[in-house]
Amino acid sequence: MNDLRVGRIIRAVRRRLRLTQQAVSDKVGIDRSVLSDLENGRLEVVSLRAARRLCGALGIDLVIEARWRGGAVDRLLDQGHAAMVEYLVDLLTREGWIVEAEFTFNDYGDRGSVDLLAWQPGRRALLIVEVKTSLTDLQAMLMSLSRKVRVVPRLVAARGWRRDVLGRMLVVAGTTANRSVVRSHQSLFDTTFPAGSRSARAWLRDPAEDVSALWFVSDEAVRHSKRRGRRGVDPT
DNA sequence: AGAGACTTCACCTCCAGTGT
DNA sequence: ACACTGGAGGTGAAGTCTCT
Questions:
Q1: Do residues A166 and A152 make contact, with C-beta atoms less than 8 angstroms apart?
Q2: Is the CB of A54 under 7 A from strand B?
Q3: Is the C-beta of residue A22 closer than 7 Å to nucleic acid chain C?
Q4: Would you say the C-beta of A8 is within 7 Å of strand C?
Q5: Phi, psi values for residue A159, rounded to 5°
Q6: Which residues form the domain of A12?
């Protein structure tokens, strides 16, 4: 984030809206001098709370980005995601599912990728799984998942995976923070994902009818699976 | 551990400069 | 003259340090 650039953007938007510093600061109840500091790139003397409120009054999204050693932070975050995917692949395979990780699609320009796609020939069941290590933009995540549920079954029908039963699952790392996010949007999650972790596991063994589940996977379960996996590969 | 001194932070007040 | 803005200095709250 370039402080001077942020300030210039705020000023430009405010002027475009034909508002004075006073008008904007009155609107959010923060002194005009704070907005002046912000517009002049002195972000270090303004609280994040004040900056967000002032930007909000102008319709500006203030995005804070954390970086670490170039792309290393992505790899760091991906490790947790990859471990969860690996855990699920292992589990699904043992339950007799045919599993495909990172299924990418392009349906007339409607692009995306599914973390895990699984097929159970016996029940003709199709499973679409979204894996999340942290729950951030819920709205975008739910929209993305419903789009995949709409598009993917039609695309995979071409390979003979014509489903009688459809499962969609949001698999989330069972951290305190994630559980807290779910609790604070309980009614939204209850409506979107009526089934929980226990039902999700049971469904994998016997996918008799459509399911929509939210499944918390603990870090301990993932680590346990990894140890077992290693023993399987290397018996020493 | 608790109390008081000190420092820092976030914001406010006020005044001076600039442009119309 | 007036509106708008920048910025120095003030203020209260919160945090940190130091001493007992």
A1: no
A2: no
A3: yes
A4: no
A5: -95, 10
A6: 3-57
